[in-house]
Amino acid sequence: xxxxxxxxxxxxxxxxxxxxxxxxxxxxxxxxxxxxxxxxxxxxxxxxxxxxxxxxxxxxxxxxxxxxxxxxxxxxxxxxxxxxxxxxxxxxxxxxxxxxxxxxxxxxxxxxxxxxxxxxxxxxxxxxxxxxxxxxxxxxxxxxxxxxxxxxxxxxxxxxxxx
Length: 163
Prior knowledge:
Elements: E1 20-38, E2 46-58, E3 64-69, E4 73-76, E5 81-90, E6 100-109, E7 117-127, E8 143-157
Antiparallel strand pairs: 1-2, 1-8, 2-3, 3-4, 4-5, 5-6, 6-7, 7-8
């Protein structure tokens, strides 16, 4: 395993299915990007709408090993990528933390470290939540970048046993 960080208490709803093995854990440090937009059900009311993440991925020594961006997509320094979709969520135990997630890979690119990733967990989040106020008609279209950190755990499907 590369860059293992540590293991916070994991909600059972975020468990990776049997047959998948932890490949690596990386610490993310970056921002969650929100835009002030009119609500679909009432265009007179505005709210912060999530647009994309923008973060560096760091190993346990604090060295940059990749990046995280819209998709959601993770890209390793070797150029390999995994894009995923959310399967389940759980509230962060931190009041200001964005939700914890279990994501399933929908596309992999390249031949490097992320080329075989099947599941991603976002855990141990701090920060990243949009504020409850500050988004109104006067601020429509305004972008807000909210600092966050998280741990991302990347899994791959283990080979079936030949025994």
